[in-house]
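Thread title: Can someone regenerate the structure for this chain?

I was given the following input by a collaborator and told the matching C-alpha cells would be attached. They weren't. Posting the sequence so someone can regenerate them.
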Amino acid sequence: MQALDELNKKLDKLLKKYAALEAENKRLKDTIATQNKSAEQLSKQLSSLEQGMVSVHIGRATDNEDEKENMRRQLDTVIAEIDKILNTLND
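Best answer:
Regenerated them for you:
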C-alpha cells in the first residue's frame, strides 16, 4: 500500500512537471512565431531601404554626364543580352 502511495506521489510530480514543460513549450513556440514575424518585417524593411539606397546612388551617379553615358551604355549592353536570351528561348 505504501509503495502505491509513493508511485502516486511520483506520478503526480511527473504530471505537474509535464504540464509545466508543455506550458513552457507553448510559450517558446509563441515567442518563435513572434520573432519570425518580426524578422520577416525587418527583412522587408531592409529590402526597401536597400532599394532606396540604390535609387539614391543612381541619382547621384547620374549628376555627371560621363557617368550618365557610361550607365546608358551598360544598360544597353544588358538589354541586348536579355534580347539575345529571349530570342534564343523563342527559337
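The chain has one domain: 2-90.
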